[in-house]
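User: Some background: our group keeps a shared notebook of sequences we're curious about, and every so often someone picks one and asks for a predicted structure to add to the entry. Today it's my turn. The entry only has the sequence so far, pasted here. Could you supply the structure so I can complete it?
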Amino acid sequence: MGFSQDMDDEYEKLFRRLNPPRVVIDNESCKNATVVRVDSANRHGTLLEVVQVLTDLNLMITKAYISSDGGWLMDVFNVKDQDGNQITDEAILGYIRKSLGPESCFVSSMRSVGVKPSMDHTAIELTGSDRPGLLSEVCAVLTHLKCNVVNAEVWTHNTRAAAVMQVTDEETGFEITDPKRVSKIKELLCNVLKGSNKYKRAKTGVSLGVTHTERRLHQMMFADRDYERADDEVLNEKQRPNVSVVNWYDKDYSVVTIRSKDRPKLLFDTVCTLTDMEYVVFHANIDAEGPEAYQEYYIRHIDGSPVKSDAERQRVIQCLEAAIERRVSEGLKLELCTTDRIGLLSDVTRIFRENSLTVARAEVTTRDGKAINTFYVGDASGYPVDAKTIDSIRQVIGQTILKVKGSPEELKPVSQESPTRFLFGGLFKSRSFVNFGLIRSDS
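Assistant: Of course. Here's the predicted structure to add to the notebook entry:
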């Protein structure tokens, strides 16, 4: 078995050397977008790698055409910057060429999809039941254990919470390597996640390695089965993404169509989930030029089969809905920018908790000694956030340090049960798909 695997790896390396990926960037053929064409030998996860490079640059993918029959991947992406303009920055264009071209690790079969190297911190992974004040409690424990949070991302969905937190030792400023101390961190954090109910699902993990935070969060929440909804949960169809899966038996594909409100990184989230569920995208058509996004995927399982049963179809639909909803942010957006210090995150989240605010999502970054944090918060009782509460918090933290994005009067209640208020489907004309077992061409 080992010899056979080595031979396969060597064959793949040779094939890629003989057929290196080609990247063409064009600002002439489309007036309002930059066209990025990528041709590459295809393997499971290659499409995700390409999409990840573009989304990590915070580029907006407005259109995409994907084809990978015959072992060769041909991708065309129309991308814009955050202001809706073509990409003209040579540093960004050069990075795309370097990351996806023949000189990059993109051609190496040894590359792990979604991994960014960094050895100066310890990555802590947390999953458990969401509740008001949870992030504050976690940060307080880390501060007590003399751990400094340098980067973190926190997602909540369907009453579940997941976080990837990169911490350093308060004294050394580097990763934590003492096994006993690592074990203690895991134990105390697991107790926090369980809360008063020791039977609740909770999981902690600590690694010194490498990770791509957003992909890892998808994997963690998928493993935690956040896509499962309670039997008594009342769903509003207008607030959910519209996902359908049908089989096209003539071509032996399953066709996935998704219609939802567009947002940044939507394509990454859906491709990431299909990849982690071990489905291969053979063809795809993406249109997100307006406020709504339309995605159509022609897929097979990695074993070569289309979706085999209604139960599998329902699972694909549920998992894609969850992937879209996890990053949807309701509530008030607060941005904090100040000089970083030990315990800063613990203090800020404690102030939120004391003022009955709950954090639905958070992004924590430290750059050159500056803390740049974004929080999406709502009232713990589910009511709109009161402007007086925000004013009080800003007086404590600092008016110039904590900035408010959006008006509290425009907010809707933050729902811990199903944060999908901004999503709605059915705004595109659907194809004439009959039922799970039949597909026919457009009428």
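Suggested note for the entry: The two ends are 51 Å apart (CA to CA). The first strand starts at residue 22 and ends at 26.
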